Amino acid sequence: MPNVTRADAVAAVRNPLAFIAARWTPTPRTVQRAALAALVMSVLIVVTGGAVRLTGSGLGCPTWPKCTDDSLTATSEMGLHGAIEFGNRMLTYVLCAAVGWAIIAARSEKPYRRGLTRLGWAQFWIVMSNAVLGGIVVLVGLNPYTVAAHFVATSALIAVATVMWQRTREGDAAPRPLVGKAVQQLVWVLVGASVLLILVGTVVTGAGPHAGDSSEVERMPVDWETVSKLHAVLAWIVVTLTFALWFVLKAVDAPKGPLNRTRDLFLVLLAQGVIGYVQYFTDLPEVLVGLHMFGSAVTWIAVLRVLLALRERPEAELPDLPVQSYEATSASIAGPR
Predict the structure, then answer these.
(1) CA 231 to chain centre
(2) 31 half-sphere exposure, CB direction, 13 A CA radius
(3) What's the predicted TM-score (pTM) here?
(4) What is the 3-state secondary structure (H, E, C) of the chain?
(5) Could you read off the pLDDT of 239-261 as tens digits, one per residue?
(6) d(CA 217, CA 221)
(7) Is the N or the C terminus of the chain less surrounded, counting Cβ atoms within 10 Å?
(8) Neighbouring C-beta atoms of residue 315, cutoff 10 Å
(9) Per-residue pLDDT tens for 145-161?
(10) 29-51 burial code (b ≥16 CB/10 A, e <16)
(11) What are the φ/ψ torsions at residue 123 (nearest 5 degrees)?
């Protein structure tokens, strides 16, 4: 084990990320896996959050940040609902650990990639903000508008995590488009329709029967049948746009990347549509609603992958500069980045 001097200890306390980066260089595969772990955890938190709602455990821990006024953790008297809600809260720490690992790996990669590190920090701050919002959701008794905002924030986290995962497999050169401007505009319309689909989906949930708790929980004052049909129409619009995009890409002889990602999105949409219609006509069984929430996260990732596949970013060409070495205590790495 290498000797740690007093200067090393001071440097580690002042800026632990710079201290680690000065002594460890992860492989590109390690950075990719760290980013993927953060993305997987962001999807998993959607699934467990859905489990909290669908089991009526939203107020299993009736206060926040403690589980009760007298206990930080769930107690045996709180039963299964308390365990489920507290378990979901604990999973937030696992998500933080995954995001932290992604930040450390990105910060330690050589050469240093500032943009990649910033994507990791963006995830961290979204997680922190959403944790506070989750506490507000509990304190206001599962108000449907705050619940919807909680899900939208998680969708934003998934978006940033997806971009970071993609960026770990690319270089830092300026992006080069692989398709024409008209195709890019069509994809942006697809992204916009997908965002609207997610937003309307939160209204469907906010007006629907799964309030998240067995008590009288406020619901959004809209007709659930009407908003569900609007959600279905938007889903068909997204499917139609995806189908049209695939034909356009074939017509212009686009590279395999955009074509494959569009095909993947189409298959995900078909599966999500089947689940959506089955749950609608079977009175919303909890298992299918949970699968639909998982499908929503996967669909959003698939849409973003189509967008990101429209360009390529090769490795940046670095000028031949003399190699410089830095101590962990030097000003160049001791300051925060």
Answers:
(1) 22
(2) 28
(3) 0.88
(4) CCCCCHHHHHHHHHCHHHHHHCCCCCCHHHHHHHHHHHHHHHHHHHHHHHHHHHCCECCCCCCCCCCCCCCCCCCHHHHHHHHHHHHHHHHHHHHHHHHHHHHHHHHHCCCCCHHHHHHHHHHHHHHHHHHHHHHHHHHCCCCHHHHHHHHHHHHHHHHHHHHHHHHCCCCCCCCEECCCHHHHHHHHHHHHHHHHHHHHHHHHHHHCCCCCECCCCCCCCCCHHHHHHHHHHHHHHHHHHHHHHHHHHHHCCCCHHHHHHHHHHHHHHHHHHHHHHHHHHCCCCHHHHHHHHHHHHHHHHHHHHHHHCCEECCCCCCCCCCCCCCCCCCHHHHCCC
(5) 999 999 999 999 999 999 999 99
(6) 12
(7) N
(8) 9
(9) 999 999 999 999 999 99
(10) ebbbbbbbbbbebbbbbbebbbb
(11) -60, -45
Residue 176 corresponds to which tokens in the numbers above?
A: 């080069």
